[in-house]
Design goal:
about 260 residues, mainly beta, Lipocalin, eight-stranded antiparallel β-sheet, four-stranded antiparallel β-sheet, 2 helices, elongated, disordered C terminus
């Protein structure tokens, strides 16, 4: 009899432990195989915790590409669902983006066929209805090659930044961009959409969105600089600041 009671006690303790672990995982953005994210916040404004989830259906077993992605909010036993575009590795953030006192939802998804760029979605679920919010536009940038193996990047309203690209001389000569240091023809750089868009808290100023765009030379595999931007919301997204950061060419590792 004592052995039976001991066994029942062990089973009870184990089940309680597993239940606790499941709750802990649920509250800490538990993620399985990149296809499921979940957290709890009040995003509907009813002063009760809602369950916010991002779920993805892989293209096939073992595939990282999700052919179907869905954002859902469970509130008062009712589920509000929003379909998202296919892609890779969805990421979920919750914050008050539009400064209305209510938490909003930001989801970023790596784009299909290009793991360097993201598609971003922002939603408010105020009063139990899904309404899409605008996300910041890309930074107004013009960029082009210059004679002498240089590149110029200009952000609207700022002094142009000139970058030395002589380290890529051989490749650009072979591609016909340059000949003896002179451009064969005027050639623009590739200004990409956001590769990341994230939330940052600024003391006394609320939430800001931080974006990174890469500017590339010959193609997307040839990044030259990053445009780092900071945005705040005041009836619409306002650019707080933007700067150009050069991307150094990877040097060969020493053996």
């Amino acid at each position: 009899m004592k052995k039976l009671n001991l066994l029942k006690y062990a089973v009870l303790v184990l089940s309680l432990f597993l239940s606790y672990q499941a709750v802990e995982a649920h509250d800490k953005n538990f993620q399985v195989d990149g296809t499921y994210i979940s957290t709890k916040r009040d995003v509907t404004g009813d002063q009760k915790m809602d369950i916010i989830q991002v779920q993805g259906l892989p293209y096939k077993a073992g595939s990282k590409f999700l052919k179907k992605i869905e954002l859902s909010v469970e509130s008062n036993r009712r589920t509000i669902s929003v379909p998202l575009d296919a892609g890779y590795n969805p990421d979920l953030k919750v914050a008050d983006l539009n400064n209305d006192g209510l938490q909003d939802v930001l989801v970023t998804v790596l784009m299909e066929g290009n793991k360097r760029l993201v598609t971003s979605y922002a939603y408010t679920f105020k009063d139990g209805e899904a309404h899409e919010l605008d996300i910041p536009p890309t930074v107004p940038v013009t960029a082009q090659f210059l004679d002498g193996y240089k590149a110029q990047i200009s952000i609207e309203g700022q002094k142009p930044v000139v970058v030395d690209i002589r380290s890529r001389k051989k490749a650009y000569d072979e591609l016909g961009i340059y000949q003896n240091g002179k451009l064969n023809e005027p050639t623009e750089l590739l200004v990409n959409p956001y590769s990341t868009l994230d939330i940052k808290s600024v003391f006394g100023k609320g939430k800001r969105l931080i974006g990174i765009q890469k500017v590339s030379g010959a193609d997307e595999r040839d990044p030259l600089v990053e445009i780092q931007s900071v945005w705040t919301y005041k009836n619409e997204w306002k650019l707080v600041k933007a700067k150009v950061k050069e991307i150094k060419v990877n040097k060969q590792k020493k053996g």
